[in-house]
Design brief:
Blueprint: H1 24-91, H2 97-117, H3 122-148, H4 154-240, H5 254-326, H6 333-361, E1 370-373, H7 374-384, H8 386-392, E2 395-398, E3 403-406, H9 408-424, E4 433-441, E5 451-458, H10 490-500, E6 505-507, E7 516-522
Parallel strand pairs: 2-4
Antiparallel strand pairs: 1-3, 4-5, 5-7, 6-7
Length: 535
């Protein structure tokens, strides 16, 4: 790692205007507001153009084109009436009146439609009124008198001939009406074309403005934000690579310049603390050496405790027992009791030393971890506890148990302590019933892989939930030694074994009656079946 001489960062230029104090957020806010206002104006113009084009289009498609069609239908209906009246007047056949009657109905419908479409237009309304007047005149002078005659007469024929002039006037009115409607339709078409041209022009302009805004925004962001960030990123990478003498150049908006100054300050602090870190590392190496020496001394102490400390205790117990046997007749009951106390104390001291050694060796002295069948471990454990199980009449059952990955010896100690506790703390007068179950568990949050969750349940005296943590502390007892013998190490040893295997153990406070301990162990690493024998 480089430890270049620390240099001071170059002084930033004084602000030349108000904009020099703007932050990235300020620039983005001002730019966004300007763009928003411009887009609102453009949107308003676009909406007006669309509304105008829609209005012109409706005027063409919803008014004048349908009006022209209605006028043509009216003309067709009047021609049908004139044809029917003329045929009836000349032949006297009633079937000629059917086109006349249909034409009257069609004329009325077309006139109503035309009146609705041309409402508000004075000339179209006047044209329709004139057509209706001419139609009524022809109906009065010709059509009704002829259609109401029982038989054709010379007078009816004469009316038919004389009515031709009235109908020609009606036809002329219709022609003028249609010419005027066609003129309005043509004007609407021209207006629509102009509106479409205006719409295309406006939207093209809007698209050009939007593209220009995008280009300006991209150029502004690149120059004002991206380039300063790239420079800052390059400078930070130099420092991350250990070149603490590289100074940070401040550029861009105010907040980026402030960030650059902060990073440069951090660079100076890191350079100043690097030497301290090197000194601390040297001290840690010293402490590690001291810790290794302490561990070696601890191993030596364990050897001494397992041999040299227990040997005097065995002699004390042996000689006390020998003293009791040899001088039994000379000792009173109190002396024998004292000897018994001494022997019991020596034996308990030996047991305590052995348990402490076992507790300290968890995680330090063990066989190589391997895939282990828990059912095989359970069989070995029940064989070891055969006499205790037989004396108590305990019934031990289990579900199908999986294989786990761990130390077979330590797993045996774990099950032996849990089962021994279940037998020891049984309910008086009841047969101890102990059941072992296992269930699969997903990968742990720490990424330790799939695990199995085991539970050892019994029908004993139980443990209050307020003692759920205390029972796993070494030398902690809930009962006197006279009531339940022991030294308070068993559950602490279980916890240390489970934690060595990367699992957890705890008391199920909701289980009743009795006690249930739940613990987790890592799954076996091989899919193949695990050897049943456990050394």
């Amino acid at each position: 790692m480089e430890t270049d001489t620390v240099q001071q960062a170059p002084a930033t230029r004084p602000p030349g205007s108000v904009r020099d104090g703007w932050t990235t957020r300020g620039w983005l806010g001002a730019g966004s507001a300007a763009v928003l206002v411009l887009l609102l104006v453009l949107t308003g113009g676009g909406v007006w153009v669309l509304a105008h084009a829609t209005d012109v289009n409706k005027r063409l498609t919803d008014r004048w084109s349908p009006a022209l069609i209605a006028s043509v239908r009216m003309e067709s209906a009047l021609i049908n009436q004139e044809t029917g009246i003329r045929g009836y007047g000349m032949t006297g056949k009633r079937e000629f009146l059917e086109p006349y009657q249909d034409g009257v109905a069609q004329e009325g419908t077309a006139a109503q439609e035309l009146a609705r479409l041309t409402e508000g237009d004075e000339r179209a309304t006047a044209d329709l009124a004139r057509v209706r007047e001419d139609s009524e005149r022809w109906q009065t002078t010709t059509a009704r008198p002829v259609s109401e005659a029982a038989e054709p007469t010379a007078s009816a024929q004469q009316r038919t001939e004389s009515g031709k002039a009235a109908f020609d006037a009606l036809r002329a009115s219709l022609t003028e009406q249609q010419d005027n409607i066609e003129a309005e339709r043509d004007r609407a078409r021209d207006d629509l074309q102009a509106a479409r041209t205006l719409r295309n022009t406006v939207f093209t302009a809007i698209a050009c403005v939007v593209l220009a805004l995008i280009a300006l925004a991209f150029a502004g962001l690149r120059r004002g934000v991206q380039l300063p960030l790239d420079r800052l990123r390059t400078d930070v990478r130099e420092i991350a690579d250990g070149r603490f003498g590289h100074t940070i150049a401040a550029s861009g908006p105010a907040d980026l310049r402030a960030l650059a100054r902060d990073v440069d300050g951090m660079r100076r602090r890191l350079a100043g603390e690097l030497e301290f870190s090197d000194r601390a590392r040297a001290q840690l190496d010293e402490q590690a050496t001291e810790l290794r020496r302490s561990n070696e001394e601890l191993e030596q102490f364990a050897y001494v405790a397992s041999h040299d400390l227990q040997e005097p205790l065995r002699k004390v117990a042996s000689f006390c027992q020998l003293l009791e046997r040899r001088y039994a007749e000379q000792l009173d009951d109190r002396a024998k009791q004292y000897i018994s106390f001494a022997v019991d104390g020596a034996n308990r001291m030996q047991t305590l030393i052995g348990d402490l050694l076992a507790f300290s060796r968890v995680g330090r002295l063990h066989a190589e971890d391997t895939d282990v069948s828990i059912e095989a471990v359970l069989r070995r454990t029940t064989n070891s506890l055969g006499m205790v199980i037989e004396e108590s009449g305990a019934v031990i059952t289990h579900d199908p148990l999986p294989a786990v990955h761990g130390d077979p010896t330590q797993l045996g100690v774990l099950l032996q302590n849990l089962i021994s506790n279940a037998i020891k703390f049984r309910t008086p007068g009841e047969v101890p019933r102990i059941h072992l179950t296992a269930s699969g568990q997903e990968d742990s949050a720490e990424g330790a892989g799939p695990r199995w969750e085991f539970a050892v349940s019994d029908n004993g005296i139980g443990i209050g939930p307020e003692y759920a943590e205390r029972i796993f502390v070494i030398f902690q007892r809930l009962h006197t030694r006279d009531t339940y013998p022991g030294n308070g190490i068993g559950l602490a040893l279980c916890k240390k074994i489970v934690e060595y295997h990367g699992g957890t153990i705890g008391l199920d406070a909701d289980h009743a009656p009795g006690t249930r301990f739940v613990f987790s162990l890592p799954s076996a690493r091989q899919d193949a079946s695990v050897t049943e024998s456990v050394n």
